[in-house]
Amino acid sequence: MERLVIRGAGAGRRASGCGGAVAALALAALLAVPGPSRVSAAPAGPPGFADLVAQVAPAVVNISTRKVSTGRGEGPSLPQVPPGSPFEEFFKEFFDRDREREQQQQQQRRSFSLGSGFIIDPAGYVVTNNHVIADADEISVVFQDDKEVPAKVVGRDPKTDLALLKIDGDKPFPFVEWADSDQVRVGDWMLAIGNPFGLGSTVTAGIISARGRDIRSGPYDDYIQVDAAINRGNSGGPSFTMDGRVFGVNTAIFSPSGGNIGIGFAIPSNLAKPVIDSLKRTGRVARGWLGVRIQTVTEEIAESIGLKETTGALVASVTPGGPAASSAIEPGDVVLEFDGKKIDKMRSLPRIVAETPVGREVEVLIWRKGEKKSVRVKLGELPDDEQIAELGKPQEPGKPAPGPTARVGEFGIVVSPITPELKTRFQLPDNAKGVVVVEVDPDGPAAQEGIRPGDLIVEAMQEEIKAPGELKAKVEAAKRSGRKAALLLVERQGDVRFVAPRFKE
Predict the structure, then answer these.
(1) Residue 137 gets which letter from DSSP?
(2) Averaged pLDDT, 335-343
(3) How many domains does the chain have?
(4) Domain boundaries, position 255
């Protein structure tokens, strides 16, 4: 007979005294209670997902890719023989000849990749991730019954990691529809279907864990985080709402080991759908373009410009020839709303602008010099990086700013006019504007904000600086007015940003 051992806080010690006797009696009484005459029915569990799976699973497919590469064999290796051995030259000549013959025969190697996808149109349009089919020579779509159909690429968008494929068939394909991802809530149930590790169609369930995740994978990161089991091979597969609509495209996982730990990321349908629609129509993605460089509004910057909240996107620079340059938007403006949509965080603006149709004239609410102002901008089409760089090149050289050097003690810096000697010393461009920082107190407020010798201070308190004395006067005026910091526009090797050093206490 097995002996039941009960251990508590005093595990390993023998029970003694009255407490031990009482415990033994209580256990005996518990064991003496008669059980029920029959086994009671177990309480009903939560509703299952079987009906939902039967509804949507036929439209979820596996993506198989193949890449044919050409390599050369290394040939056999020379056996180890003692140096100076009479066999050394014999083996060397034999193996060199064999290796040469082997290298002349090119070998074809085929690499395989497996992912997931889903059909969004009965005509056979399939959505997946761009990284699933990138550089593939052959792509196939595999259905649940193992039927394999060749697919061709309609279009790809590396910026959002989305791709659209096309397959052909004798009859309409099963398909699923997009959900409104703005309506899904943290805590809602969700279902994921995909092809983890090439095992085939696999269903997992969970909840929506978070929204608006930025994993720094691209310029439009706005992932929905889910805790359903997602592994390698699930990429490109759908996440479903409980009414069978796709609210996200499963794209990435966070995992130190490479396996599922309950942190997966899906591209929201409201971001994916316009991209896929554009690929379907034209094979490419046309995005709206404002033509500004932006940065986060910090507490110091907000205080220095009189903004009560750290919200919006601060315009650091305006691209020459871009849509913003043709409107009233200026560096130093804070974009609070765009086309009626509030900009809570800086990184929300690029995504909202990109989703706006090219050519639309929109209203932009900005914060400028202590007050709100509404301007209208007609969006252009986002050019490629090379075209943007060309637009950003200065057209006219500036002139050196006059005046003597000045020590701005509030920030711990010394600034100077831009002279030929300083241009050479700090490799400043010919069209450099503002004043140049020549000394920085390593313990001062400016150093804490990353300012260093060679930086150009172009503006102070959103007004242009042409001489060192102007900077000193504006900083002192800001301090007298009760500000805790002063907003500076700093340029370093063509990179422009706003900083707001705090005044020394």
Answers:
(1) S
(2) 94
(3) 3
(4) 181-282
3-state secondary structure 203-269: EEEEEEEEEEECCCCCCCCCEEEECCCCCCCCCCCEEECCCCCEEEEEEEECCCCCCCCCCEEEEEH
Determine which one of 64, 131, 201, 227 is catalytic.
Answer: 131
Residue 463 lies in a domain: yes
End-to-end Cα separation, the chain, in angstroms? 79
Catalytic, out of 113, 116, 161, 221 = 161
- In the annotation, is 145 catalytic? no
* Residues written for the chain: 505
**Is 161 one of the catalytic residues?**
yes
Out of 201, 235, 269, 416, pick the active-site residue: 235
> Is 235 part of the annotated catalytic residue set?
yes
Please say if the pLDDT value at position 167 is more than 90: yes
- Tens digits of per-residue pLDDT, 304-315? 899 999 999 999
What CATH code is carried by the domain that includes residue 413? 2.30.42.10
* CA–CA dist 353, 289 (Å, integer): 6
- In the block, which residue shows the tokens 């943007």? 388
Q: Which two tokens stand for residue 90?
A: 């014999």
| Same domain membership, residue 306 and residue 230 | no
* Pair 278, 301 in one domain: no
CA distance 381 to 158: 17
Taking a C-beta distance cutoff of 8 angstroms, is the pair 118, 130 a contact?
A: no
The answer to which of 5-14, 68-77, 257-266, 278-287 has the lowest mean pLDDT is: 5-14
